[in-house]
Amino acid sequence: MTDDEYMQIALAEAEAAARRGEVPVGAVLVDAAGDVVARSGNAPIALDDPTAHAEVLAIRDACYHAGNYRLSELTLYVTLEPCTMCVGAISNARIARVVYGASDPKGGAVESGVQFFAQPSCHHRPKVIGGVRAADAAALLKSFFKARRKR
């Protein structure tokens, strides 16, 4: 499968999160063989947990099933540029590659904000590709927040 195809799976997770009333962000972890090992959408509201971002939930699930807190062979696909908390988890899990959709100038921490992976104190820097299916991810977020403002 291609990056676009894996991002489509992440977008499906984001759409499911939106249907649950969560901010529509989805994440998928894929191993070197191309198998999806974990997938999640945002769930801070449902779980009463501010750390329940899609990336963190997918990382937790993959670590649990791997029996290891290191995910050095995996690629993370996420629909929105990860925040500072999530890039910290990505770095600590030693994820090999991160592919994200829409940029997040307000909350992102890869190319925006603190640019975590560029900091000298960052212990692990994954390969990063941004902008995959960015228009689709951005449209989903805009639609979600537009509907919220109408209430």
What's the helix and strand layout?
Elements: H1 3-19, E1 26-30, E2 36-41, H2 44-47, H3 54-66, E3 75-80, H4 84-93, E4 97-102, E5 127-129, H5 134-149
Parallel strand pairs: 3-4, 4-5
Antiparallel strand pairs: 1-2, 1-3
Helix pairs in contact: 1-5, 3-4
Structure description:
Helix 1 packs parallel to helix 5 and helix 3 runs parallel beside helix 4. The mean pLDDT is 96. Strands 2-1-3-4-5 form a five-stranded mixed β-sheet. Helices cover 40% and strands 17% of the residues. The chain has 151 residues and is α/β, with parallel strands linked by helices. It has helices spanning 3-19, 44-47, 54-66, 84-93, 134-149; strands at 26-30, 36-41, 75-80, 97-102, 127-129.
Please give a handful of descriptors for the protein shown.
5 helices, alpha/beta, globular, 17% strand, 151 residues, five-stranded mixed sheet
Secondary structure category: alpha/beta
Count of individual beta strands = 5
- Count of separate DSSP helical elements: 5
Strand content: 15-25%
Shape designation: globular
Sheet with the most strands? 5 strands, mixed
Rg from Cα: 14 Å
Low-confidence stretches: none
Q: What is the rounded distance between the termini?
A: 39 Å
Secondary-structure element pattern, one letter each: HEEHHEHEEH
